[in-house]
Design a protein that fits this description.
Strand order of the largest sheet: 3-2-1-4-5-6
Order of helices and strands: HEHHHHHHEHEHEHEEH
Shape: globular
Radius of gyration: 18 Å
Length: 226
């Protein structure tokens, strides 16, 4: 591909909204704690780190059930937790920072296609961004197999689903595991990790976000060379 051809291809900003913008890590851990307590299984942040790091949600639940010598249906537990998670995220949409809305709108003005990956209600999320063009601001309802993270195949699949090339995209990740997934797929990466996952390695990311604002677009433009 020539430089002139690459310059004509669309650029993308793909955001792991539930974990990099909303408090998804805390919400999911509380949902799991309550749901697993009903099965007689203890769960806390330490359990989450040991059972789920690098595993799918279902396999992590299987490991927890096996350790507790319980015969609960891990797939059904995962489905129930995910359903509750979507509801909790929708209820938490008031927590979207004004700076993030400004950041998204600045990216759209620059001609960057923005994709927000979320398990919250799509229309409820869209309402937070006014009358933005739905072809340029895409709210993508995604349920990744990992626990509170997006692997390389998830980042790549979403990019290709919306006609973007991953090497012309910037990911906004909410954990070290998601950073590694995005880097493996060839994305530029900004990261805003939740305190619950500070132990995860975020090395290789282009920048760590301390606060969302429209000025953050400068970093995106630097990475995408626009």
């Amino acid at each position: 591909m020539s430089h002139s051809q690459a310059a004509q291809l669309p650029r993308g900003l793909i955001v792991e909204m539930d974990f990099a913008v909303l408090p998804g890590h805390a919400l999911m851990q509380e949902i799991c704690r309550e749901r697993l307590a009903a099965e007689g299984i203890a769960f806390d942040a330490k359990c989450a780190a040991k059972a789920f790091c690098g595993r799918s949600f279902t396999s992590g639940l299987n490991a927890l059930c096996a350790k507790a010598q319980k015969t609960a249906d891990a797939a059904a537990l995962a489905a129930d937790c995910n359903a509750r998670f979507g509801e909790a995220l929708t209820a938490a949409l008031d927590e979207i920072p004004a700076g993030f809305v400004a950041f998204v709108k600045a990216a759209l003005t620059k001609g960057v296609k923005v994709i927000l990956m979320t398990r919250a209600d799509v229309e409820a999320v869209r309402a937070r961004f006014g009358d933005s063009d739905p072809e340029k601001l895409i709210i993508s309802h995604e349920a990744m197999p990992g626990f509170c993270c997006c692997g390389w195949e998830g980042w790549r699949r979403v990019a290709r689903k919306y006609d973007l090339h991953e090497r012309l995209c910037v990911a906004v990740a909410g954990s070290g595991l998601s950073v590694k997934g995005a880097l493996t797929s060839g994305f530029g990466v900004l990261v805003k990790p939740h305190p619950l996952v500070e132990y995860q390695d975020i090395s290789g990311s282009d920048a760590r976000i301390t606060e969302y604002s429209s000025g953050l677009l400068t970093e995106v433009c630097r990475i995408l060379r626009i």
